[in-house]
Design a protein that fits this description.
Blueprint: H1 23-32, E1 38-39, H2 51-62, H3 75-89, E2 99-103, H4 104-116, E3 122-127, H5 132-139, E4 143-148, H6 158-168, E5 172-178, H7 190-200, E6 206-210, E7 233-238, E8 250-254, H8 257-271, H9 276-288, H10 292-314, E9 326-327, H11 339-350, E10 352-353, E11 355-356, E12 368-371, H12 376-396
Protein name: Aminotransferase
InterPro entries: Aminotransferase_I/II_large (IPR004839), AspAT/PAT-like (IPR050596), NHTrfase_class1_PyrdxlP-BS (IPR004838), PyrdxlP-dep_Trfase (IPR015424), PyrdxlP-dep_Trfase_major (IPR015421), PyrdxlP-dep_Trfase_small (IPR015422)
GO molecular function: pyridoxal phosphate binding; transaminase activity
């Protein structure tokens, strides 16, 4: 194995140097070797890819669809995305000029940020939220501005948004909003979105709206931010959660033409184009798989209700999530433990794996995330063990 030469050992991008491992994956790896642990950690669907989508991928291979596709993605998939967004959310995008197929929603986030940010410019991030946003902002030279939503039902209010915009002034270039939320599962109503849109309308601020969990909503139908502020919204979505296609890595950006023209250059320089089989599978999933998320959603709802009821019986304070597949309970004050220590103790002594709340920003401290993208068998056993662990812990304290 080669050893890094001393002559190049100090050659590195200063923006990359401060980064450690992804906190979610790092904690999951840290506890993975504990014998007999029940893991309720990662947000990956435990369902298989729908059969018709798999067959479309296989057919593309057999048809020798093995060459470069258009950099923004095959037109058939972009048309399917356009139709899907129009049918399900009432937002209209031209498949030729306003949609880019990306390597998952993660690339869509990075590409969007890289396209709009100059060094030192700021992005408003309501927390707790998916930590990759903060990391990506820093990686492209920007500065994340966290807004604590823990006392507002885990939603940013128009008042707090206006206050932070006034404070940051022209340095603020974007707001990132994620709903249904990771790790909280919260959903914004149309009225709430309209109130936020009123704050940023006609200001020099993009709204990067990550709606990857939009098909996993348990109450009223999902409303896209793009429907209330189309001219300033960068809509991000994909098939990882809706069709359990995490490994296929298909996401997309839908936005006004002027933004897409620039973002398409960033995207193409970085990855050229997504793979053929994954794109054809995604096209089939969107064209003929409208009902695919329905059974998943029903199953997730059953799991959610079981976990929330169990947590309530244990005395945990939590908000019942309206979407996604996470619950975000508050650690009882009597434990005297921060989120990392609580979760590590739970893993070692209670044999249950969850993710510490501080992995989702400063406002997540004092909470932990449970993923119910796993079997009901594991969920029941995990809740049983959590109850036993909590009783013992609180008795000691």
């Amino acid at each position: 194995m080669p050893e890094l030469a001393k002559s190049v050992a100090n050659i590195e991008n200063d923006l990359v140097k401060p980064f450690g491992d992804n906190k979610i994956l790092a904690f999951n790896s840290k506890i993975a070797g504990i014998p007999g642990i029940v893991k309720l950690t990662l947000g990956e669907p435990d369902f298989n890819v729908p059969e018709h989508a798999k067959q479309a991928a296989i057919k593309s291979i057999n048809d020798n669809q093995s060459h470069y596709t258009p950099q923004k993605g095959i037109l058939g998939l972009r048309e399917a995305i356009s139709n899907y967004l129009s049918t399900d959310y009432g937002v209209k995008y031209d498949p030729e000029t306003e949609i880019i197929v990306t390597i998952g929603a993660t690339e869509a986030i990075f590409t969007s940020l890289y396209t709009i940010l100059n060094p030192g410019e700021k992005v408003i991030v309501p927390t707790p939220t998916f930590s990759m946003y903060m990391d990506d902002i820093k990686l492209v030279g920007g500065v994340p501005v966290e807004v604590d939503t823990s006392k507002d039902g885990f939603k940013i209010t128009p008042e707090k948004l206006a206050k932070v915009i006034d404070k940051e002034g022209s340095a603020a270039k974007a707001l990132i909003i994620n709903y249904p939320g990771n790790p909280t599962g919260v959903v914004y109503t149309k009225a709430e979105l309209e109130a936020l849109a009123d704050v940023v309308r006609d200001k020099g601020i993009y709204v990067i709206s990550d709606e990857i969990y939009s098909q996993l909503v348990y109450g009223e139908k999902h409303v896209s931010f793009a429907s209330v502020l189309p001219g300033q919204t960068i809509l991000i979505n994909g098939l990882s959660k809706s069709h359990a296609m995490t490994g296929y890595r298909i996401g997309y950006i839908a936005a006004p033409k002027g933004f897409v023209e620039q973002a398409a250059n960033v995207h193409s320089f970085a990855i050229t184009c997504p793979s053929n089989p994954a794109q054809f599978a995604a096209e089939e999933a969107l064209k003929n798989g409208h009902e695919d998320p329905v059974e998943m959603r029903k199953t997730y709802k059953i799991r959610r209700d079981y976990i929330v009821d169990a947590l309530n019986n244990m005395g945990y304070e939590t908000i019942k999530p309206d979407g996604a597949f996470y619950v975000f309970p508050k650690i009882p004050a009597g434990t005297g433990l921060n989120s990392n220590d609580f979760c590590l103790k739970l893993a070692k002594e209670g044999k249950v794996g969850v993710i510490p709340g501080d992995a989702f920003g400063d406002a997540g401290e004092g909470y932990f995330r449970i993923s119910y993208a796993t079997s009901m068998e594991d969920i029941k056993e995990g809740m049983k063990r959590l109850a036993e662990f909590t009783d013992k812990l609180l008795q000691k304290n």
